[in-house]
């Protein structure tokens, strides 16, 4: 039959842990969008404590986000579609762009991001300002 031959793969445990994907400096600048409530001693408690230390005593919302750093209030973000529109154009795959195109199409059809782009909100933010 046309099936490729199978061979057994042996798992080899890592010798050292991977470096963090995001630096502490970058973590301090992040704004958490999802407000997950934790009860008791869960995994998030250590992250909450670390996030609270990073803000330097500024008033914070859940998960250590400084209240003054919020771009939009919760009431300003719509999680539904304000109007029905035509389906957008697809993206052409050029070599190895299939995954990137899939991600871009998923993001484009996410209501808050689509509303952000359609309302020209991106023009409010000046690069390097």
What features would you describe in this structure?
With 129 residues, the protein is an all-alpha fold. It has two domains: 1-70, no CATH class; 72-129, no CATH class. 29% of the residues lie in helices and 0% in strands. The protein contains four helices and no strands. The protein has helices spanning 24-29, 43-54, 98-108, 111-118. It is extended and about 55 Å long. One of its GO terms (molecular function) is cysteine-type deubiquitinase activity. InterPro entries: Papain-like_cys_pep_sf, Peptidase_C19, Peptidase_C19_UCH, USP, USP_CS. It catalyses: Thiol-dependent hydrolysis of ester, thioester, amide, peptide and isopeptide bonds formed by the C-terminal Gly of ubiquitin (a 76-residue protein attached to proteins as an intracellular targeting signal). Residues 89-129 form the USP domain. Its EC number is 3.4.19.12.
